[in-house]
Design a protein that fits this description.
Layout (H helix, E strand, L loop, with lengths): L1 E3 H9 L4 E7 L1 H6 L1 H17 L4 E7 L4 E8 L8 H7 L5 E3 L1 E7 L8 E8 H6 L1 H29 L47
Parallel strand pairs: 2-3
Antiparallel strand pairs: 1-5, 3-4, 4-6, 6-7
Helix pairs in contact: 1-4
C-alpha cells in the first residue's frame, strides 16, 4: 500500500481517514492489553484491505491515556501531518506503515510515543508477527506508566507535621546562700575611775 506524500498529507488534513474508537478502563487495559487492542487491529486490517487510510483509538476513560494504531508514511502522529512536508519530498511515493501511538503526560517528557509496527501490507500478510510486536510494545508502555504512577504516589505522600519547636529549658534558678553577718559588737563602755582625795586634818 503506497501513497504520494502530498496526497497523503492532503488526505490527513482533510480528515479523509476512517476512524474507529473503543473505550475501556485502565485496569482492563493493563490486565489484558492484547484483548483491548484486538478490535483496533482488526479494523486497521479491514481498512488496509480496502486501500483506505485509517486510525483506531483506545481511550482509557478513567485516565488521560490514548492508545492508537495509525496509518502513515512517517513516524509522526496524524495530527502532525503538516510536518511531513518539511521532512520528505512531497512528490515522492512512499509506503504506508502501521504505527502504534500512546499519548499521555506520564509516558515521557513530550507526552507521546510512536513506533512503527510494520508496513501496511506486511501488517496483514504477517499478522501474527505484527501482533507480537504490538504485544511487546504495549508491555513496555504499561511498565513505564506503572513506574510513573508509583513514583508519583511516592512523591505525593503527605509529609508528617513538623514537630513543635523544642522549648528552651527554663533558666536554672540558683539560690545563693548569703551568710548572715554576726551583729557588730558594741564597744564596751569605757570605765572611768574617780580618784577620791582625802584631805588630812591637822
Amino acid at each position: 500500500m503506497k501513497r504520494e506524500i502530498q496526497t497523503f498529507i492532503d488526505a490527513a488534513e482533510a480528515d479523509e481517514i476512517q476512524h474507529f474508537t473503543v473505550d475501556t478502563t485502565a485496569k482492563d487495559f493493563e490486565q489484558d492489553p492484547d484483548k483491548a487492542m484486538a478490535p483496533l487491529a482488526a479494523f486497521i486490517r479491514e481498512q488496509i484491505g480496502k486501500d483506505q487510510l485509517a486510525q483506531a483509538e483506545l481511550k482509557l476513560k478513567d485516565t488521560a491515556v490514548s492508545v492508537r494504531l495509525e496509518m502513515s508514511v512517517l513516524n509522526l502522529p496524524l495530527q502532525d501531518s503538516k510536518t511531513i512536508g518539511k521532512i520528505m519530498e512531497t512528490d515522492q511515493e512512499a509506503d504506508i506503515n502501521v504505527y502504534a501511538v500512546i499519548e499521555t503526560p506520564d509516558i515521557n517528557v513530550s507526552g507521546l510515543r510512536i513506533d512503527a509496527l510494520a508496513p501496511a501490507d506486511t501488517y496483514v500478510a504477517q499478522a501474527a508477527v505484527a501482533d507480537q510486536s504490538l504485544h511487546d510494545w504495549l508491555k513496555l508502555q504499561i511498565e513505564k506508566l506503572q513506574t510513573a504512577a508509583a513514583n508519583k504516589a511516592a512523591t505525593d505522600v503527605k509529609q508528617p507535621d513538623e514537630a513543635p519547636a523544642a522549648k528552651k529549658p527554663a533558666a536554672k534558678t540558683t539560690t545563693r546562700k548569703t551568710a548572715k553577718k554576726a551583729p557588730a559588737k558594741k564597744p564596751a563602755a569605757k570605765r572611768t575611775t574617780k580618784r577620791t582625795t582625802t584631805k588630812k586634818t591637822k
